[in-house]
């Protein structure tokens, strides 16, 4: 709406109107949020290397599970 109100035509304003592109964009932002949460878990003083390793392995396992669920079009666990 903002782009239309300001009469701005650009690549982004065109893509925003495409629902498939918006779904992909929303998915990418959700994945980035999960990666940001992992990043925050890996920061800080006094954190043992073993704990960092466990955080990364946990993220990898969750991501693999999520990929399997996505292939079956099951997105329930991602949004909880």
Instruction: Round the mean pLDDT to the nearest integer and report it.
Output: 84
Percent helix among the residues?
over 70%
Number of DSSP helical runs: 4
- Cα end-to-end separation: 30 Å
In terms of DSSP E residues, the strand content is under 5%
Number of strands: 0
Q: Stretches where pLDDT falls below 50 for ≥5 residues?
A: none
SSE topology string:
HHHH
Largest sheet: none
Molecular shape:
elongated
CA radius of gyration is 18 Å
Structural class: mainly alpha
Q: Can you tell me about this structure?
A:
The chain is built from 4 helices and no strands. The protein is mainly α and 80 residues long. The chain has a domain of 32 residues. It is elongated, with a radius of gyration of 18 Å.
Features of the shown structure:
80 residues, mainly alpha, elongated
In short:
This protein has four helices and no strands. The protein is mainly α.
Helix and strand layout, with pairings?
Blueprint: H1 2-5, H2 11-16, H3 19-41, H4 49-71
């Amino acid at each position: 709406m903002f782009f239309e109100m300001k009469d701005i035509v650009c690549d982004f304003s065109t893509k925003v109107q495409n629902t498939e592109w918006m779904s992909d964009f929303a998915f990418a932002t959700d994945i980035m949020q999960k990666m940001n949460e992992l990043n925050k878990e890996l920061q800080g003083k006094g954190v043992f290397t073993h704990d960092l390793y466990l955080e990364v392995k946990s993220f990898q396992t969750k991501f693999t599970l999520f990929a399997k669920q996505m292939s079956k079009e099951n997105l329930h666990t991602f949004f909880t």
